[in-house]
Amino acid sequence: MRPSPAIYTLWLREVKRFGRNKSRLIGSMALPVLFLVVLGSGFGGFFRYRDDVTYIQFIGPGIIGMTLLFSAMFGGMNVLWDKQFGFLKEILVAPVSRTAIMTGKTIGTVTTSMLRALVLLAALIAAGLVRFDVGGFLMALVFMFLVSASFVSLGIALASWMTDPHGFQLIMNFVIMPVFFLSGALFPLDDLPRWLAILTRLNPLTYGVDGMRFALGGPYRFSPVLDLAVLACFWLAMTLIGAFMFRKMSA
Predict the structure, then answer these.
(1) Which of 36, 116, 117, 106 has the alpha carbon at shortest distance from 75?
(2) pLDDT tens digits for 141-150?
(3) Burial state string for 162-182 with b = 16 or more CB within 10 A and e = fewer than 16
(4) Helices and strands per DSSP (H, E), number in the chain
């Protein structure tokens, strides 16, 4: 089988599986909406980043980053379930490279992750909580893709190394929560304690959230060029590591 049909087939499988599972779609959107509405409304009464920026406007891009992070990392779970049910073994013996298999699964998971984030972004735009213009929207898409693709590759790399889905969920929670809370999604990065400032700057999601804030007209901390450069390097590194781990994986 040529790589292109194999990539398309695996991409389509991921998208159809996502579209047919309505409870999964609703459940995956519940947490971001809960964070946005409850935190944004709860803290909005006594915290304003600036006079012209409310707290719910401040955390909007951060919640989009959270949506991308959670859905992308748990995309690795699909690899483990495919291992458990024997589907992965069947496609690994097919006459197609493992790189093509990983590419198809990665693109499929990135697509479903981006769809979730776009639904949330559309809601934020409709509510007037973020600025909308064509240039900013396209730039936000670039940052969203880099965040999603990077963490999908990281999730697949970890899933290639593990065999137990329950253990994978524990590892994912151990990775996801610090990455999210140290990204500046929920609090400004100005005037942080030194140790916390160092940790936030070592976190790649920090630059994704900051880049989306810039693209959507919110308050940002770093240069968008720096955000883009850091994310692009992280994406490249995770793609190479994910491809290496997937090639070494035993079905």
Answers:
(1) 106
(2) 999 999 999 9
(3) beeeeebeebbeebbeebbbb
(4) 12, 2
